[in-house]
Design goal:
Elements: E1 18-23, H1 33-52, E2 56-61, H2 75-86, H3 109-122, E3 125-128, H4 132-144, H5 160-168, E4 174-177, E5 184-189, E6 193-198, E7 206-208, H6 216-226, E8 231-234, H7 242-252, E9 258-261, E10 265-266, H8 282-287, H9 292-301, H10 315-321, E11 332-333, H11 336-350, H12 353-366, H13 382-392, H14 402-410, H15 429-442, H16 451-464, H17 469-481, H18 489-496, H19 498-516
Parallel strand pairs: 1-2, 8-9, 10-11
Antiparallel strand pairs: 3-4, 4-7, 5-6
Helix pairs in contact: 1-10, 6-7, 9-11, 12-13, 12-14, 13-14, 15-17, 15-19, 16-17, 17-18, 17-19
The protein binds one RNA strand through helix 4, strand 6, helix 6, strand 11 and helix 11.
Length: 518
RNA sequence: GCCCCCAUAGUCUAGCGGCCCAGGACGUCACCCUUUCAAGGUGAAGAUCGCGGGUUCGAAUCCCGCUGGGGGUACCA
């Protein structure tokens, strides 16, 4: 599609009709958030930027399972589930099919072997019979002599007879690509401009393995070409092998796609983000109570920016503004605190209460705070949960916080709590007791739905008892909830309800008596 | 070791030759609001734009070198 990239390249060439991008993970485990971010960039590019620039755009999911030894059962399902949870959909893929099916590399094996054979016949590749042991020895030798490592091209110049003899003898072999020995290979990168490699520093990498499966290098090039991929997006770890890919395209006479190596996500201590920094797989975040909205918002902020000022983006906002060529090429450190802040922002201020309430339901059920039921408004306690969500949402930072925060409203019996909590600082136990008894006596005639009325009543009771309002309120709060922190007292009392409140006041009074007798 | 990429506050970023002795956000600190805890509001500290050379009337912005960080160096992706 392009041979060179100018200083500030456009992501989508004028003459292109359809943008086709793909995410091609290998099913070897759970989806890393770096991968999830890459998928988001792809979707935004294909479904947002492409239409904005008058093109059609397709995002394809393709599974690269050519390393048969590392396959992990269930990875593909897990991956698809995670992406759909994020709201990222693909137009073509293993489960949804499409005009370029199959979308699983192991099912496309024939193409790769054919291409590899063609390259051997062309003189662009050769059969290599070297044993792993010999390769190991060569590598060590080169290392020791401080030479560039890599294969010594031992089999590159075997004669046709020698090759035939080895084949007849049944020796196994791989196919290696013949890199040019001099000159340079240019890798045009959308984010970085031209990356230039001196060919004499490059090596002849394996493209077809002994087991007949291609390596990544052959497989991507063939698949990307066959699937008419226009933009190759992937992690930066592929930059060093990109010259091989460029040479493969050339040897096969195929147009080059546009390469866009995306930036890496670093762990706070430098280096790749790893498990020890509190989870790196999408599942970890999902289980920790993060919202897809917050994750997508954070991914966008990490390495990209609309104007340097806007912080909160919905996925729709991103579709309207994201540009692939504006992604920064520099790696960025994963900042858990900023993600947490975004998650909280979304929960506290940007999600509709009804929406939040539905998302909270499964967590409440999981913790047994409410009974099992549907995860939507048909759950018998939805109305109650909706009301509590409105009351408590500003205190929820993660969905996982909800069960604990809501439990004292939803459960009839409070778990036992420390009697000392009933007695605020600078207040005598006897005073706290008097406050609770006075309040319990008054409660039957109060209308808790009248918040202002409750407040007025309670303030005058405090005055009569010679207590500051706060000193009077705290014992009541603790009696009602079993803890010192809650939403506004009057709303809290109303939500707890008069009957349960009477009962809980009784328990608290008992506790204070016991405290006094000690 | 060799090859490659990257470089604005602790972190994410704005900046594309004069509007910048550098703007926004997270985090930190202070104050305000207040019945607790959040949420919210206001403000502060924090960057000699990694260092050194150029180019230019003028550079965070362009060029070169260095340093630092990162990636790759497999019949793994």
């Amino acid at each position: 599609m392009t041979d060179t990239v100018s200083e500030r390249p456009k992501g989508i060439p004028e003459d292109l009709k359809e943008v086709r991008v793909r995410f091609a993970p290998s099913p070897t485990g759970s989806l890393h958030i770096g991968g999830a971010r890459l998928v988001m960039y792809n979707v935004l590019f294909a479904h947002g930027q492409a239409p904005r620039e008058g093109k059609t755009g397709k995002f394809i999911l393709r599974i690269e399972d050519t390393d048969r030894k590392r396959l992990i059962e269930g990875s593909v399902e897990n991956l698809m589930d995670g992406l759909r949870w994020l709201g990222l959909e693909w137009d073509e893929g293993p489960d949804v099919g499409g005009p370029y099916a199959p979308y699983v590399q192991s099912e496309r094996k024939h193409s790769y072997a054919e291409v590899a054979e063609r390259l051997v016949e062309n003189g662009h590749a050769y059969r290599c019979f070297c044993t792993p042991e010999r390769l190991q020895a060569v590598r060590e030798e080169k290392q020791k002599n401080k030479l560039p490592p890599g294969y010594d091209r031992h089999c590159r110049n075997l004669s046709a007879e020698e090759v035939q003899a080895k084949l007849d003898a049944g020796e196994t072999h791989v196919i290696r690509f013949k890199m040019p020995l001099d000159g340079e290979t240019v890798v045009p990168d959308l984010l970085r401009g031209n990356i230039v490699y001196q060919n004499d520093t490059l090596e002849d990498l394996v493209i077809l393995k002994t087991d007949g499966y291609p390596t990544y290098h052959l497989a991507v090039v063939v698949d990307d070409h066959e699937m008419d991929i226009t933009h190759v997006t992937r992690g930066p770890e592929w930059i060093p092998t990109a010259p091989l890919h460029v040479q493969l395209y050339k040897a096969l006479g195929w147009d080059l796609p546009i390469f866009a190596h995306m930036p890496l996500i670093l762990s706070p201590n430098g280096g790749k983000l790893s498990k020890r920094h509190g989870g790196v797989s999408l599942n970890d975040f999902r289980e920790a109570g993060y919202l897809p909205e917050a994750l997508l918002n954070y991914f966008a902020l990490l390495g990209w920016s609309l104007d340097g000022k806007t912080e909160i983006y919905s996925f729709d906002d991103l579709l309207k503004h994201f540009r692939l060529e504006n992604v920064s090429p520099s790696p960025s450190t994963f900042d858990r605190q900023k993600l947490d802040w975004l998650n909280q922002q979304w929960i506290n201020h940007h999600l509709a209460v009804e929406d939040l309430a539905k998302r909270v339901l499964p967590w409440l059920m999981k913790d047994g705070v409410i009974e099992q039921g549907p995860e939507d408004e048909t759950h018998p306690r939805y109305a109650e949960v909706l009301k509590l969500t409105g009351l408590l949402k500003d205190r929820i930072h993660f969905l996982t916080d909800a069960p604990d925060l809501m439990s004292y409203f939803l459960v009839d019996e409070l778990p036992d709590y420390d009697s000392a909590l009933l007695v605020p600082k600078k207040v005598e136990p006897a005073q706290a007791l008097a406050a609770l008894e006075a309040f319990a006596a008054k409660l039957p005639e109060m209308d808790l739905a009248d918040l202002d009325g409750t407040e007025a009543t309670m303030r005058s009771m405090a005055e009569e008892l010679g207590m500051k309002p706060g000193q009077f309120f705290m014992p009541v709060r603790v009696a009602a909830t079993g803890r010192t922190q809650s939403p506004g007292l009057f709303e809290t009392l109303e939500a707890v309800g008069k009957d349960r409140l009477m009962e809980r006041l009784g328990i608290a009074v008992g506790k204070l008596h016991a405290l006094a007798n000690n």
